[in-house]
Specification:
The complex is a heterotrimer of chains A (275), B (285) and C (285). Chain B is mainly α and 285 residues long. Chain B has a domain at 7-131 and 243-284. Chain B has helices at residues 16-19, 22-38, 42-59, 63-70, 76-87, 104-130, 133-144, 154-184, 194-200, 202-225, 244-266, 270-284, and strands at residues 93-97, 100-103. Chain B is globular and about 75 Å long. Chain C contains twelve helices and ten strands. Chain C starts with a strand and ends with a helix. Chain C has three domains: 1-87 and 162-238, Rossmann fold, CATH 3.40.50.300; 95-161, no CATH class; 246-285, no CATH class. Chain C has a six-stranded mixed sheet, with helices on both faces. The chains are: A alpha/beta (275), B mainly alpha (285), C alpha/beta (285).
Chain lengths: 275, 285, 285
């Protein structure tokens, strides 16, 4: 379990990015952190594996404090982060070797490593690109390689720090379905940081950040019942929720807290076709 | 379309030379360079060139690719030739007119300098044509690893080379995009004198630098997240294997080097070889 | 006078083994003041096409004329280019000068306008993109937030008073509020400057909101060109191409399949709600 306790972060310039944030990330959960640019969500992401240390408060993984230098390597192995820019996280010139970069740093024996690398590439559907040069791949493919690079370290938590922001819609879909699969099949804890509200629908729990603080927290259903509040802090609701709210407002149909497309379609059919 | 550039000049075919361990190839090149430098005799040089051609044939790299590597020296070679021809004054005088004097020593020296340069560059390019930049870096890292004892940053150097190789295509692509963005704002990169043009490059260079620094920052974070902490305790996915082919290649090269040294020792003069060859031919008749 | 694209074909690395045809026989006219949405997959030829609109690339066949200026002709190209403002996806590829003010004035300066006119235009452009002059004019563009950088980059093009404004994914990477703001800004430019807008976007919803004409590219060819109603009623075809139709169009399609009688031209939530309200009203009567 990752626990963030009363964490504040102030940059050297004096600007404050986080103020008294407390959050527990449970093993095996799919958590989504949303917020507009500058809400502190990316600072929070970098706290999770000790890339940044809180100026106040503590971040611990199963009791190991990220400020403890001796534990840092272990924490980073167990908490993998995929960043926004696909180009800036691939280190070497051959896909297979890049995926091996983490295990190499951890001193994993060569034979074990080869198996892990192949398996990681298979999990993200990139095995046929093992010998390719990364710069020839698309953005979505590069992000898949970045995820594979994390998987090869056998992490417990996968953090995606706006990992889909620079991708086209197809690339974005790809990454989301891979992450969903990893969560469902391997039980990996997922922390997805995003500004795309549609992506929050994949999560079990949503945390909304604003001005360095946690503004709201709840299931996607609960959060998206509060469209007005979300808009007031520069966010949005998914198109499906917008439609649901408009239907309610105009008195056409009340679909409750439906967030899912299928649910909304069924709801519309139920309330209109029967008549 | 900078994306398509191939780095270095690796020629992807399968050959006995391609299959050699990069460490072997680097050692072969060093031995070859030594050989090129100790040769002081034109006839022995012919042998060295012949060996070079043999290696090229073995590597299945078209000779034209090796010659292409010499092309950038098309100005350097004649200049070196002429300089040596006129400046060196040893041996017998062949020609003299006012301040120009050409001697047998000058001709010899001029020929040698050109041959040495050609031999060196084509040998080095054969290495890069048959070895990918990645395995070359790895070979260097392994070969230099004894230097770690004297705290020479071998691993860091290899890591830097790898990252440079990884990012060169990315940066070229970015430079292309920046150039287009500024051209679209009416930047004039083609007209004006050299100072004006240098100044016109600023709108391209500044974003390129700023972005590169940001990239470096982000890459550092990504590497740290992947538990990078220097070369200590690192294992490698790829293990270099020294095979029988490597041993054979090294033995052949060693034999070659010994032969050259011996030939130099016992046949130090051109005319002796000439006489020897003439003798051989005479026998043939 | 419009931008006329005639039988445009472009092949990268023409004649080589790696030849790749990015555009095939594209003909299209962009009229004054029109808002054209350009959609297609990554690799559909969108970026090649827009680079040809202001002569950053020349086609292997066919031509583009901007208000009569032939963009294949080197001399006419400069005049044509001055009419077409081009905003690329990443502001980081464009911003370079010490201050926001200087950066925005780069384009107008290249147009050889006088100081007074430049100053007027920079102020106007900053006002249009919503950057407060006193607060931002003297700031370094590198200190700005992502959204502010985007605005500065836009202002740098707006200050050139383009007759045609080409935007490549202007909303990419912005948060929802930022996206809304940029879309509104673009509508503003159109109203106040009377320029035509050509917007490339992956997001059909963004295009659905403001375009008058939608062009769908597929593998370098125009798959369809028409009003948003015409294009978005082709939900199934778009989906097959891997393009996500606007949300409301998808919903309407699904509801139709379930037996609901909805008009074919629905592609916004507003229209969908209205149509559903009518069904409800009708059913009650």
């Amino acid at each position: 379990m990752l626990s963030i306790e009363n964490v504040s972060f102030t940059y050297e310039s004096g600007a404050s990015a986080l103020e008294g944030v407390s959050l527990e990330i449970r093993d095996g959960e799919f958590l989504c952190i949303v917020g507009h640019n500058g809400s502190g969500k990316s600072t929070l992401a970098k706290m999770l594996n000790g890339l940044l240390l809180p100026t106040e408060g503590t971040v611990t993984l199963d009791g190991m404090d990220t400020s403890d230098d001796d534990k840092l390597l272990d924490i980073r192995r167990r908490v993998g982060i995929v960043f926004q820019n696909p180009d800036n996280q691939i280190v070497t010139t051959v896909v297979r070797e890049d995926v091996a970069f983490g295990p190499e740093n951890l001193g994993v024996p060569t034979e074990v490593m080869a198996v892990r690398v192949d398996e990681a590439l298979r999990s993200v559907g990139m095995e046929q690109y093992a010998d390719s040069a990364p710069h020839m791949l698309s953005g979505g493919q590069k992000q898949r390689i970045a995820i594979a690079g994390m998987l090869a370290m056998e992490p417990e938590v996968l953090v995606l720090d706006e990992a889909t922001a620079m991708l086209d819609p197809l690339g974005r879909k790809d990454i989301l379905s891979i992450v969903k699969k990893l969560h469902d099949e391997k039980g990996i804890t997922v922390v997805m940081i995003t500004q795309y509200m549609e992506e929050a629908l994949y999560a079990e729990r949503v945390v909304v950040m604003n001005g360095g603080k946690i503004e709201m927290e709840g299931s996607p259903r609960e959060i998206f019942m509060r469209g007005g509040e979300l808009r007031s802090i520069g966010l949005d609701v998914p198109a499906a929720v917008e439609l649901r709210d408009m239907l309610k407002e105009s008195g056409v149909a009340d679909l409750g807290d439906a967030v899912d497309q299928e649910e909304i379609i069924n709801g519309i059919c139920r309330s209109l076709l029967k008549n | 379309m900078f994306k398509d550039i191939t780095l270095g000049q690796y020629f992807p075919v399968d050959s006995p030379v391609h299959r050699l361990d990069p460490r072997t190839k680097i050692i072969l090149l060093i031995m070859y360079i030594v050989m090129v430098f100790i040769v002081k005799d034109l006839w022995v040089f012919a042998l060295v060139i012949g060996f070079m051609l043999f290696m090229t044939a073995m590597s299945r790299v078209p000779l034209s690719y090796v010659i292409k590597a010499i092309k950038p020296m098309k100005w350097l070679l004649p200049i070196m030739f002429l300089l040596n021809l006129f400046m060196v004054r040893t041996g017998t005088e062949l020609f003299s007119w006012k301040f120009i004097t050409i001697t047998t020593g000058g001709v010899r020296q001029a020929l040698f300098i050109v041959l040495r340069l050609v031999a060196l560059v084509s040998g080095a390019s054969l290495l890069t044509l048959t070895t990918t930049p990645v395995s070359l870096t790895e070979g260097l890292e392994r070969l230099l690893s004894p230097l770690k004892i004297v705290r020479f940053p071998v691993h860091e150097l290899a890591m830097m080379m790898t990252i440079a190789l990884r990012f060169i295509p990315t940066l070229l692509e970015e430079a292309d995009k920046i150039m287009k963005a500024q051209l679209a704002r009416g930047a004039d990169l083609e007209n004006g004198n050299i100072f004006k043009r240098a100044k016109a490059m600023l709108p391209i260079l500044i974003p390129l630098f700023v972005n590169s620094f940001r990239r470096a920052d982000e890459l550092a974070l990504a590497m740290e997240s992947r538990c990078y902490h220097g070369g200590e305790g690192r294992t490698r996915l790829r293990v270099l294997k020294f095979s029988r082919g490597d041993l054979a290649a090294l033995l052949i090269m060693a034999a070659m080097l010994t032969a050259v040294i011996l030939l130099q020792r016992f046949l130090p003069f051109d005319h002796q070889i000439a006489a020897f060859v003439k003798g051989l031919l005479g026998v043939g008749k | 006078m419009p931008i006329v694209i005639e039988k445009l074909t472009h092949t990268y690395q023409n004649g080589s083994v790696n030849a790749f045809t990015a555009l095939k026989d594209i003909s299209l006219t962009i009229s004054d003041g029109e808002f054209v949405g350009l959609i297609g997959h990554t690799g559909s030829g969108k970026s090649t096409l827009i680079q040809m609109l202001n002569g950053l690339m020349q086609p292997t066949e066919g031509r583009v004329t901007v208000d009569g200026f032939d963009m294949n002709d080197k001399k006419q190209r400069a005049k044509g280019r001055a009419l077409v403002g081009m905003v690329f996806q990443y502001p980081d590829h464009q911003l370079f000068d010490e201050t926001v003010y200087k950066d925005i004035s780069f384009g107008p300066k290249n147009m050889k306008l006088n100081e007074e006119e430049i100053d007027k235009r920079v102020r106007e452009a900053m006002r249009l993109v919503g950057l407060d002059f006193d607060e931002f004019a003297e700031k370094s563009p590198f200190e700005l937030s992502g959204g502010e950088k985007r605005r500065t980059a836009l202002a740098g093009i707006i200050a050139m008073y383009p007759k045609y404004l080409v935007l490549d994914e202007p909303m990419a990477g912005l948060d929802p509020a930022g996206r809304r703001a940029v879309l509104e800004m673009i509508d503003d430019f159109r109203r106040q400057l009377g320029c035509a807008v050509i917007m490339v976007s992956h997001s059909m919803d963004d295009i659905a909101r403001s375009a008058e004409k939608v062009v769908v590219l597929r593998k370098g060819e125009i798959f369809r060109c028409g009003t948003p109603q015409e294009i978005f009623s082709l939900s199934d075809e778009l989906r097959e191409m891997g393009l996500e139709p606007p949300f409301a169009a998808r919903m309407a399609g699904e509801l139709r399949r379930r037996g609901m009688d909805l008009p074919k031209d629905i592609y916004t939530n507003e229209a969908l709600v209205k149509a559903l309200a009518e069904i409800k009203g009708g059913a009650h009567v």
